[in-house]
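Hi support team,

I've been running sequence recovery on a batch of backbones for a student project. Most finish fine, but this one hangs at about 90% for roughly twenty minutes before it completes. I'm not sure whether the input is malformed or the queue is just slow. I've pasted the structure tokens below so you can try to reproduce it. Let me know if you need the job ID as well.

Thanks,
M.K.
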């Protein structure tokens, strides 16, 4: 089947707009976000460790004051101790000793601008104070109070410049930032390459295959070949492979149906002429003096009328769109009696038609199309080897459920798999495989359906679902007539 429409070639997105580029950017951003979440606690911990070391050093410096007589120390030594500690003053308070021990070299330049009590510092407080230490550009004089790391019940108080702490903290921050960038680059690169290998390349392969298959869906070579993976990509490949195979088969079937439509169109005119001749001859038989001939003439008339109708309807199956319907009120019991009379008219010993549909079971449908549906189902059953066909029905609020059950040998596994596909399978040798496909098409045009309920060695049962009322009535020419109330 050739498509003469101009082909519009689809192209994959550019590298900057591709899925791989987005994955790279998102990976870098997420890794950097993780590093930021690591950076903030790290600088908070580093500042706490720095100040605790200062408190420990200040405590050691006070020991020299405790060893001197009368808690006095030479001013020169005091200046040297405080210079080594890097503070203006150190104060120590022990629980077993009243008052404070203090080393003070001189008053700091400027007043104390901030005080920090490490005894009350929590996780978020340490992070906030560390960030606050990094922000100021000028040096500040700060007071730090906390327990001595050497003796936990000893309180140490320091007055010091913040500039050395800022320098240390900023140097540590740059080191963390550099390390974070290296880790981010390595991690992002590895994750990016992994995603490219595991996801992007297979997805690009699937996309290219779908584009190529769209251009020529009947080319077997363009069906995707599954890689055998067991993950979601593998499942997608297998499902795409199955879908493309089914679509190719469906297109092949439609090509055959189109060829069939052309053939039927060519023979339809001659066949209708032949049936017209048969009608004229059957009219003469109606006046025969033979009572047996007059008895079978109505059945003959009915068969010829249906054949003429079939000639007009056969083309509908090969045309696009649903079959057109001539909707009327149909008594299912009477219709199935007609079907039974038709399919058992042949002289076949033991062929039984059991119509158990209650009289007065009425629905809105196309009488001729429903006759074709049940005639196809019944003939398939008898031709498959059934001797008895039983039809029953259950009426629901808005639908009618009809079961057609036979006592035949049942359907094979191959027949069940492709039961309603045109030309796919036939229940008898030489069959076309169109009977069930036509039945399903006609039922769907009514808003109903047919399915195989069960099939085994004891027989086969088909279930037909039909709505009791048609929402839109259609004339034979396919034009909308009126909407049902």
């Amino acid at each position: 089947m050739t498509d003469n429409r101009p082909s519009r070639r689809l192209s994959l997105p550019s590298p900057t707009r591709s899925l791989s580029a987005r994955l790279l950017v998102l990976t870098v951003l997420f890794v950097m976000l993780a590093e930021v979440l690591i950076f903030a606690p790290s600088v908070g911990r580093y500042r706490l460790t720095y100040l605790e070391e200062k408190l420990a050093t200040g405590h050691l410096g006070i020991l020299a004051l405790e060893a001197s007589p009368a808690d006095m120390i030479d001013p020169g030594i005091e200046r040297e101790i405080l210079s080594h500690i890097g503070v203006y003053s150190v104060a120590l308070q022990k629980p077993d000793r009243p008052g404070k021990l203090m080393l003070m070299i001189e008053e700091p330049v400027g007043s104390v601008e901030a005080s920090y009590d490490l005894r009350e510092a929590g996780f978020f407080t340490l992070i906030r104070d560390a960030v606050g230490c990094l922000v100021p550009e000028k040096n500040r004089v700060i007071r730090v109070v906390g327990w001595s790391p050497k003796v936990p019940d000893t309180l140490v108080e320091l007055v010091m410049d913040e500039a050395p702490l800022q320098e240390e903290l900023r140097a540590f921050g740059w080191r963390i930032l550099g390390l974070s960038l290296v880790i981010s680059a390595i991690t992002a690169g590895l994750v990016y390459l992994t995603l490219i290998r595991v996801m992007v390349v297979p997805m690009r392969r699937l996309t290219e295959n779908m584009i190529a298959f769209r251009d020529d869906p009947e080319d077997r070579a363009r069906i995707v070949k599954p890689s055998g993976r067991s993950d979601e990509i593998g499942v997608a490949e297998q499902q795409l492979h199955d879908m493309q195979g089914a679509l190719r088969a469906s297109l092949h079937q439609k090509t055959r149906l189109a060829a069939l439509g052309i053939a039927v169109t060519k023979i339809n005119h001659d066949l209708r002429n032949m049936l017209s001749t048969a009608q004229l001859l059957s009219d003469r038989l109606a006046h025969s003096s033979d009572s047996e001939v007059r008895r079978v003439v109505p059945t003959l008339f009915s068969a010829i009328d249906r054949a003429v109708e079939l000639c007009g309807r056969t083309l509908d199956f090969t045309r696009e769109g649903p079959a057109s319907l001539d909707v009327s009120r149909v008594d299912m019991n009477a219709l199935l009696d007609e079907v039974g009379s038709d399919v058992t008219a042949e002289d076949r010993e033991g062929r039984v038609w059991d119509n158990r549909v209650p009289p007065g079971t009425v629905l809105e449908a196309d009488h001729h199309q429903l006759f074709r549906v049940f005639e196809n189902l019944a003939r398939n059953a008898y031709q498959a080897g059934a001797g008895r066909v039983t039809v029953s029905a259950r009426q629901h609020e808005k639908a009618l459920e009809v079961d057609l059950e036979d006592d035949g040998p049942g359907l094979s596994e191959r027949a069940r798999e492709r039961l309603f596909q045109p030309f796919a399978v036939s229940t008898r040798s030489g069959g076309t495989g169109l009977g069930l496909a036509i039945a399903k098409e006609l039922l769907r045009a009514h808003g109903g359906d047919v399915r195989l309920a069960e099939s085994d060695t004891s027989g086969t049962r088909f279930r037909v679902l039909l709505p009791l009322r048609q929402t839109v009535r259609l004339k034979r020419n396919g034009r909308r007539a009126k909407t049902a109330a």
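--
Follow-up from support: It reproduced on our side and the slowdown came from queue contention, not your input. Residues 16-186 form one domain. No action needed from you.
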